[in-house]
């Protein structure tokens, strides 16, 4: 059986790779994976949920075609992305005799992809790895671009490296096993690409949101392909976030990460949920500063609400003030010379990086927002 798929190339000179997108790809990808390493071993890292719902079909397909997998299983959740599990993975890889030409496969969501990619970067000074993302959030965002990391006590993704995969395989059909809340969290990142630089895609998301959530295949594939094409273009222009172009991908993330940190980086507030609120806050702040026309944030919140995403700080499972949230922001890895860049907007589809924002002004904005939400 031949699976049809779409291809998006991430053009990075010696680090270039393909993103393949197609229904059923995880169950029919033997030849694609075998071509990456004719003689090497395949060592797979996953988590307990994926091991239950996705791995069996994938493993059966691989073994029927004479590819044996060594498997390491992580606990589920953001808290698994830590030093202890990184050490366990590295020691396991060494015990299994990993060599630099072998391929380490990350089969899972963003947590699995992040920690696997980081382990692949540091083990034997760099091994190949393949991303097979199983959540929508990972399919449209974290599996592409080479950012790998673990969390520290001070914040999210503060210990990591850029390490590009050699291949990304995206199978929208694996999303069928996810709860609606996980799909919604990924949808927030899809909307982000429209807000950054493509108003027509934002309008498309607004028109197609219902088809997307009922699982229409063509709609989902178009959304995923458009998202990863946009990300591939931005990554190619600024692979290691030096020029400021790649920073556009962080729209909503500075506010969102602060909300996630206050919620404890767990299931009480998913990353995509934090980003959803963060994007609304970024546009609302832009409006208060006269940087973009009024009612933009309201339009964004209306779309995100259709996806049953939170759009206000009051929707998050936290109780805090602006001082607390700014305190979390000060640990942000994007801090430079004591300043924190913010992604703001001139309109939907026109995001930009601002390096001169007064942090006290952000603190007051957050306090005012929290106060107004209490009375609305």
SSE diagram, text form:
Layout: E1 6-10, E2 17-21, H1 30-36, E3 42-47, H2 48-53, H3 55-64, E4 69-74, H4 83-95, E5 103-108, H5 110-122, E6 128-133, H6 136-142, E7 147-152, E8 155-162, E9 167-170, H7 180-197, H8 199-213, H9 217-237, H10 253-263, H11 271-288, H12 296-306, H13 322-329, E10 342-347, E11 350-354, H14 359-374
Parallel strand pairs: 2-9, 3-4, 3-5, 5-6, 6-9
Antiparallel strand pairs: 1-2, 7-8, 10-11
Describe the structure concisely for a colleague.
The protein has 14 helices and eleven strands. The chain is α/β, with parallel strands linked by helices.
Description:
With 376 residues, the protein is of the alpha/beta class. The chain folds into two domains: 6-177, 3-Layer(aba) Sandwich (Rossmann fold), CATH 3.40.50; 180-374, Dehydroquinate synthase-like - alpha domain (Dehydroquinate synthase-like, alpha domain, Up-down Bundle). Helix content is 46%, strand content 17%. The chain has helices at 30-36, 48-53, 55-64, 83-95, 110-122, 136-142, 180-197, 199-213, 217-237, 253-263, 271-288, 296-306, 322-329, 359-374, and strands at residues 6-10, 17-21, 42-47, 69-74, 103-108, 128-133, 147-152, 155-162, 167-170, 342-347, 350-354. A hairpin with a 6-residue loop joins strand 1 (6-10) and strand 2 (17-21). The protein is globular and about 60 Å long. The mean pLDDT is 93.
